[in-house]
Amino acid sequence: MKRIRQIALITMIAVGIMPISRADEGMFPISEITRLDLTAKGLEMDPNDIFNPDKTCLVDGICRVNGCTGSFVSPRGLIITNHHCAFRAIQSASSTDHDYLNDGFQAPTPGDEIPASGYTVRVTESFSDVSDQVLSVIVPNMSFVDRTKAIERRQKELEKQAEIDNPGARAEVAEMFTGKTYVLFLYTYIKDVRLVFAPPSSIGNFGGDVDNWEWPRHTGDFSFMRAYVAPDGSTADYSPENVPYQPKRFIQVAPQGANEGNFVMLLGYPGRTARHKTSSFLRYEENTRLPYIVSLYGRQIATMQAAGENNRSVALKLLSRIQSLANTEKRSRGQLKGLKTADIAAKRAAEEIGLQSFIEQEPNRKSRYGNLLKDIDAVYSEMASHADAEANFQYLRSASQVLQLAYTLYDSSVERQKEDLERESAYMDRNFDQTRQRLLLVQKDLDIPTDQLMLENMLKQIADAGQQEPELDRLSIAQLYSGTRLSDPEFLKSCLGMTPAELAAIDDTFLQWAIRLYPKYQELRELDKEREGQLGQLYGELISVKQQFLATQFVPDANATLRLTFGTVRGYSPEDAVYMAPATTLSGVIAKTTGVEPFVTPEKVVQMHAARDYGEYAHPELNDIPIAILYDTDTTGGNSGSPILNAKGQLVGVNFDRAFEATINDFAWNTNYSRSIGVDIRYVLWITDKVYGAKQLIKEMGL
Q1: 79, 174, 589, 600: most buried, per Cβ within 10 A?
Q2: Bridge partners (DSSP) listed for residue 567
Q3: pTM over 0.90
Q4: Which residues pair with 585 in a beta bridge?
Q5: All domains in the chain, ordered by first residue
């Protein structure tokens, strides 16, 4: 695809991000790299070799793997990312006969690599500011719902046209500052992704949920995948005829790793942060949304864990969902603790007092912005007053995956009667194959007895809240499940092409129930769009007046677009008289090993540790294998799998987590407690090479 990066057109034209108050805070858009004075921080390469619109550079070796980040580490499309990012692919390929989660997976040759269904890889190719084009659709006196819909349609138009102009590419318009600035990104888009190597979960998920979001950490959270394209280099669905993708650049692995005090930087696709949101948003999170998530997910996880406890076949179906919910639940608990401990909402409110005073000092500002903070607060207050009732109804649909299938079938049928640009994004022609794949993956992991328990529990929660129970036409739960065929793949596929009338004519209990519930879900969808439109307009104004007030610019919140963050391998003190050193070792793994999940270690690892059989991967001073490292970069979800790069731009580890205190990063960053966690490359290489003998990968990486 033609290289058309347009550095001058990125959103920072409209808003800017420099100068900043603290150079080591921030997930910086790649266009800003040359302004950060990274050399003074310890960078030993030309910043122009990290990103330059006119030549091949380091960012060409970085990719997005579904919702995570990955790095190309060979000229043949080999990607290193996290074990938890590849988890769904490992789980989907596993069975009781071939339990790759338990035993690990290795493809000795490319022909042995396993397709990772539902996975895609993106490589950023270009970006351009399209704020004026997006915001041109807003007209005076437009309703908030119409505002949201008009912006959504304009974004879709720009994406569709960009993909017509660049065949095979993937386009995405990303909102940078809410309601104010938008950037069109173009990606190389790869649909054939395969699993190459994964350690067993006893390594890749050592410590499980007990250690998740915690330090010290001893998890070998890495896996290798590979991207494939058609023989002519174009993107293509899986085919035995496809060939490995050849990235413009791959990341050189530095087997010496990184040590305390070393400069490090991460490139990746961080998800969503909310540092420009108001105190009323933070109170909504602290008092309403996060407590609901912690409570609901905790019960759902317990239900699924109990269902799979003595049945590995059931457990394999549920593990991916359990892992996803457990990660969110513990992060939410950390965020709740952080919001309360650091009193972030109160601090944000104090800042807003100063802003309000500034607004009222000048008549024109007061006229335009005087009620801005009150208006934003009113939206969150209204949301909070209906939150539990709305959430109960929304989560009913996801609690039962059979109901989710039924709803999505009907919703897609309704939406696909519309013109392509008028549809919800998931049902547009450009996205519908992915939606279909996701449905089939959900169905593949169905365990009906567990699904029934999940639905019963959600209906009980609705009843206990005093809400009107969703109409079941006097059917018992058992009759509801006995009267559906949605667990049959052929039936599901046959329904995907039907019209709403054809689906309504089918005698299927879950389909009929989803159709009766559909108007309520449509009502909530419209309400979400109304709130989105209102907050989009208000936050756009807030950014404008905050810039005037602070007389500076700031970094836009993360939004799953390519960013850079930098820092130092560094410990921290989470509480009085406690210091956390920034590295863990294999001896720590052995010390934690109990033989009981989640602290089980493969016998070969235990034996090689006892024999000090470390090869060239031992830390020269510790005479031990480094496992994980801690560093003060600014990361969030989506940075999972991000390469930890040294001062020369070489790979020294793979990011996978944050310390528990740093879960609050999404709302506020602090140099004292914001720490990220990655697996040391020396452990990656030792496990891959010495323990499991995948020497073909070591050779492919040029080591």
Answers
A1: 79
A2: 264
A3: yes
A4: 626
A5: 7-274+554-571+598-700 (2.40.10.120), 302-324+371-550 (no CATH)
